Every structure is written in C-alpha cells, then in structure tokens.
C-alpha cells in the first residue's frame, strides 16, 4: 500500500451553504468513505481547514524569521482540507479522488523518509 494526500480547493463553499447544503455535503462524504473502503483503501486521517485568511506564513533565510499574516501567495484556489489515503496504488487513489465530493482534488504521493 502507498500513501497519498488528497487536497481539496473548496474553502469558499461555506460562504453560501445553508444547513441543508451542509447536511447534503456530509452525506456525500459518507458515501465517499464507503467507496474508499470498497476499493480496499483506508483514510488514515482527514481534516477541514479554516479559511486561508486565518493563516500565518513564516519565511526563513538570512536573519530572523519573518512572520506575516495570510497565505504565502495570492491564489484563486486555496487548500480547504485534506485526507491521507492508504491505497494499493496511484490508479486507485485517482479513481477515489474522482468520487470525492469536492470541486477539484489534487492527489500527491506521500514521500517516504528515513526514520
């Protein structure tokens, strides 16, 4: 099995979501979790993130680290959440990403580092 991170770009979705929309979205995520299990994969962890406007960026280099408010770069898409998926291979991870109820999902392998 290999680990993949599925990253979602829908941080602004909650701006217009009502109570029913949130309930519908949660149902879709439950269906996604069922598809993961049916594919022989496992979600090792998942988190929704606060809006990028709550982020702080720490830049290091020469001198003291510089801490600024907000994300590092201006972008139209922002990381809204992520899941760590243990899947048999990239094809399975990509197939599951297509079932994820988010507008866009980036799939990235987790790097194996020596302990």
Task: Sum up the structure in keywords.
26% helix, two-stranded antiparallel ribbon, 30% strand, 4-stranded antiparallel beta sheet, alpha+beta, 6 strands, 2 helices, 115 residues
Termini gap: 18 Å
Q: Report Rg.
A: 17 Å
- Indicate the structural class: alpha+beta
Placed side by side, the strands forming the largest sheet appear as: 2-5-1-6
What does this structure look like?
- 26% of the residues lie in helices and 30% in strands.
- With 115 residues, it is an alpha+beta fold.
- β3 (56-59) and β4 form a beta hairpin.
Give a quick summary of the entry:
The protein contains two helices and six strands; from the N terminus they run E-H-E-E-E-E-H-E.
């Amino acid at each position: 099995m290999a680990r993949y991170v599925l990253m979602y770009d829908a941080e602004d979705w909650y701006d217009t979501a009502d109570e029913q929309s949130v309930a519908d979205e949660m149902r879709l995520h439950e269906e996604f979790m069922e598809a993961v299990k049916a594919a022989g994969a496992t979600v090792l962890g998942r988190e929704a993130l606060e809006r990028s406007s709550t982020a702080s960026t720490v830049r290091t280099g020469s001198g003291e680290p510089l801490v600024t408010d907000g994300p590092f770069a201006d972008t139209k898409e922002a990381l809204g959440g992520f899941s760590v998926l243990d899947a048999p291979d990239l094809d399975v991870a990509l197939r599951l990403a297509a079932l994820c109820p988010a507008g866009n999902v980036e799939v990235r392998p987790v790097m194996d580092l020596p302990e």
